[in-house]
Design brief:
There is one protein chain. With about 280 residues, the chain is α/β, with parallel strands linked by helices. The chain contains ten helices and five strands. It has helices spanning about 10-30, 50-60, 75-80, 80-85, 90-105, 125, 130-135, 195-210, 230-240, 280, and strands spanning about 105-110, 140-145, 170-175, 215-220, 245. A five-stranded parallel sheet has the order 1-2-3-4-5.
């Protein structure tokens, strides 16, 4: 039984008094001082690295998806613009960065975004300065859009700037659809309309690229290698002595009636043993 004459203090009263004592002691004997600013770290000596390391770092920074073609698109402010801002770091950094960016990516010659298909809309290549065009190495054409009414900006002329693409050695051609197939009967303008348009367009592009060596073809499974459209494209390529290669991203369906003699012609896909003689199929 509690018999002390001293008044009883509850634990909460004792803790409250202790906290008040600590606060008073802290404010009286220990004046508040602003924290010392942390020492700023020195800039990383990026340009002291070997060129191959700098190139690898810039590739990771600027080209996370090099397999995707650069084109006029409404999403460029989310994909391309943030990376191109690195070109503004300094003059020297921008010089090395733009070489990495424009050499690594594939640029699409003719836009396919519906917002940029107006008659007066300039293609992407026509907007690039000449020193950017000089370092491009890979271009792409995507065929299949507008098979009843081809886009008006799809025109090959001097303003497009292909004659300045002196380092381009590879042209990628991707075919979405072949309107000359029987499934388009009743919907297309004419059986040979889009085939002739694509053939003439490709021929003009091939004639204006001074250093082109390889034309790489790829398509959706509905497009056959021995179809009318592909036959015309391969014919235009073979006439100009360009090497032909097959893309690896998508499988290519063969026509059941394909009876074309397979022989060696150019650097075909290393994973395939089928090699087509273009001159015999055209």
């Amino acid at each position: 039984m509690f018999t002390s004459s001293e008044p009883f203090e509850s634990p909460s009263t004792i803790l409250e008094a202790d906290f008040k004592h600590l606060n008073i002691a802290a404010t009286s004997s220990t004046p508040l001082r602003p924290p010392k600013p942390s020492k700023l770290s020195k800039p990383f000596p990026f340009f002291r690295l070997p060129p191959e390391l700098r190139s690898g770092i810039l590739s990771l920074l600027l080209c996370p998806t090099p397999h995707l073609a650069v084109d006029l698109s409404s999403d460029n402010y989310l994909t391309s613009t943030p990376r191109l801002n690195y070109l503004l770091v300094s003059k020297r950094f921008g010089y090395e960065a733009y070489h990495t960016y424009y050499c690594t990516h594939t640029f699409r010659i003719f836009q396919i975004d519906g917002r940029f298909l107006g008659k007066r809309t300039r293609p992407l290549l026509a907007r690039l300065p000449r020193h950017y065009l000089n370092v491009l190495r890979s271009l792409e054409i995507r065929l299949g859009l507008g098979w009843t009414d081809p886009p008006k900006p799809w025109v090959v002329n001097d303003r497009l700037g292909l004659q300045h693409c002196e380092s381009v050695t590879t042209l990628k051609v991707f075919v979405d659809v072949d309107p000359s197939c029987s499934s388009f009967d009743g919907f297309r303008v004419d059986r040979e309309f889009y085939t002739d348009f694509c053939g003439r367009l490709l021929a003009r592009v091939l004639d204006r690229l001074p250093a082109l060596q390889v034309v790489e073809y790829d398509a959706y499974p509905s497009v056959y290698r021995d179809g009318p459209l592909m036959t015309r494209l391969l014919k235009e390529t073979a006439r100009r002595g360009k090497m032909i290669a097959w893309g690896r991203e998508r499988e290519w369906a063969y026509s059941p009636a394909e009876k074309i003699e397979m022989t060696a012609l150019g650097p075909w896909d290393a994973g395939s043993t089928l090699k087509k003689n273009v001159s015999s199929c055209c």
